[in-house]
Design brief:
heterodimer, A: mainly alpha, 6 helices, B: alpha/beta, Beta-Lactamase, Rossmann fold, 2 domains, 7-stranded mixed sheet, 6-stranded antiparallel sheet, 11 helices, 26% strand, ATP-binding (chain B), Spore_III_AA_AAA+_ATPase (chain B), nucleotide-binding (chain B)
Chain lengths: 181, 310
């Protein structure tokens, strides 16, 4: 009787320990995944801005259509930002910078970007659609060069911390289990 | 008018719409200047929005928004327009701009920081040319015609309607429809947006938008084989020469020129030589006060009397 009871308790302990380890491992994976996603999203932003430049400077496409086209060329979540800007430009009666900024505000929660990238977007938005060809082009180029720097930095931290977060998650779980035993 | 309300910022639009209907229909100009009240002008008088005692002041923020609306958020597409200083919007209305001018290599590159907008309402008055048609037509052909009038007397409006009538033709009067070429240097006759005319011209009209007059006349003759050429505000020496060429090429010319009367425009050498050599057969003088026109017949001498049979 005693024996079966203690075996049951042991079993429960084992299950608990496994659950803890799984949970913390998932956490670790999530953290390292965020790093990888940030790098990817910055890269997509760069691609998006490059095609925006093509549309604006060479295609002379009006801003709403340009954003629409860009949104179809890049995957989510970056595409969503341009999609939202495009629909708002069509439906709302506001200046483009205002629309861009609210869209960025709404959109940033759905990304893994840091404040530094969001700030670049805000800064770019200040003059969106208000300048002549040459200056508009300069603004896009400036944003792209900032994103280049951010991408480099994001890649570095990804390299440094990606595997560390993963193993840290697993080992952290193990540590908790050992302490609780 | 609808197209114009579209480019006004929301609050200005609301105030404009508060004007009585009959005033709205007569609006000729809307002037918006940063930090100044908004003016709405009709033929008779000027109105301040919403009233003169407590005027609404147009702010810088609204001017930015207006630029956004005018360009559909794409000022970068307006390179040419900013160089010329005006934008033609849907409906053929013109928005004149003033602000800080940017130069490059000694040439005007464009306007930035726009501080004044002047919206000129384009009205197509169909039928204004009706009373003149018979007098401008002789033996199945249109006469070379010069329209003279001071600014804002409706020269361009008349020219536009003449072009429409000639392209449609009047069956009852034995006036067949003709191929009409319009050289629209200042995009005023046709009010083209991206090359497409915003006014109704019937079917047989070809337009060279924002093309210099002298070159345009020759280009049209070479490429589009027009029967009638319509051109606005001639005056330079090249224009005169191009018109002579066109007349010799057998094309009928309809032109307009700034001036108060026939005597007045004769003081200008180019026009004087065109009239003295009787290139024009008809002159329409527009009166600024009554807005009516008088048609004068000029004697038409053929300069090539010798007929050579081949």
């Amino acid at each position: 009787m005693e024996k079966t009871k203690s075996r049951g308790r042991e079993g429960m302990k084992l299950i608990g320990a496994i659950l803890i380890i799984i949970a913390s491992t998932v956490f670790g994976w999530e953290f390292s995944g965020r790093l990888a996603r940030r790098t990817k999203q910055i890269r997509y932003l760069k691609i998006a801005f490059e095609s925006l430049e093509t549309e604006m400077v060479f295609g002379m496409t009006p801003l709403p259509y340009a954003c629409e086209k860009v949104s179809n060329q890049v995957p989510t979540p970056v595409g969503n930002l341009f999609k939202e800007v495009a629909t708002r430009l069509e439906s709302e009666e506001n200046s483009a910078p205002d629309i861009w900024n609210t869209a960025v505000q709404n959109w940033k929660k759905r990304t893994d970007l840091y404040m530094s990238e969001i700030n670049i977007l805000h800064q770019f938005g200040q003059t969106l659609g208000l300048q002549d060809l040459e200056n508009q082009r300069k603004q896009i180029r400036l944003a792209i060069s900032y994103f280049d720097q951010e991408e480099k930095q994001a890649m570095e931290s990804q390299k440094k911390f990606e595997s560390m977060y993963k193993s840290l998650g697993f080992l952290g779980g193990v540590l908790i289990v050992i302490i609780m035993l | 008018m609808k197209e114009i309300l579209h480019v006004l910022p929301e609050n200005v639009r609301a105030l404009t719409l508060k004007l009585p209907k009959d005033i709205l229909n007569e609006v000729e100009e809307i002037r918006l200047r940063v930090n100044r009240p908004v003016e709405v002008r009709t033929y008779k008088r000027t109105y301040v929005l919403p009233n003169e005692a407590a005027p609404f002041v147009f702010s810088e923020k609204e001017s930015i928004l207006m630029m956004s609306l005018l360009s559909k958020h794409s000022v970068y597409r307006l390179e040419e327009e900013l160089k010329r200083g005006y934008i033609t919007i849907t409906g053929g209305h013109r928005v004149g701009l003033a602000g800080r001018v940017v130069m490059e290599k000694g040439e005007v590159k464009g306007i930035r920081d726009i501080s004044s907008f002047n919206i000129r309402v384009a009205k197509q008055k169909k039928g204004v040319s009706k009373p003149f048609l018979k007098q401008l037509h002789q033996g199945g052909n249109w006469c070379h015609t010069l329209i003279i009038g001071p600014p804002k007397t409706g020269k361009t409006t008349l020219l536009r309607d003449l072009a429409r009538e000639m392209s449609l033709g009047v069956k009852t009067e034995n006036m067949p429809s003709k191929n009409v070429g319009i050289i629209d240097e200042r995009s005023e006759i046709a009010g083209s947006v991206k090359g497409v005319p915003q006014h109704d011209f019937g079917v047989k009209v070809d337009i060279l938008d924002s093309c210099p007059k002298a070159e345009g006349l020759m280009m049209m003759i070479r490429s589009m084989s027009p029967e009638v050429l319509v051109v606005d505000e001639i005056g330079r020496k090249e224009d005169g020469e191009a018109i002579m060429e066109a007349v010799h090429a057998g094309v009928t010319i309809f032109a307009s020129v700034h001036g108060s009367s026939l005597e007045d425009v004769k003081a200008r050498p180019t026009i004087a030589s065109l009239i003295d050599q009787s290139f024009f057969q008809r002159v329409i003088e527009l009166n600024p006060h009554t807005r009516q026109g008088i048609v004068r017949r000029l004697e038409w001498k053929r300069r090539n009397p010798g007929v050579v049979k081949v």
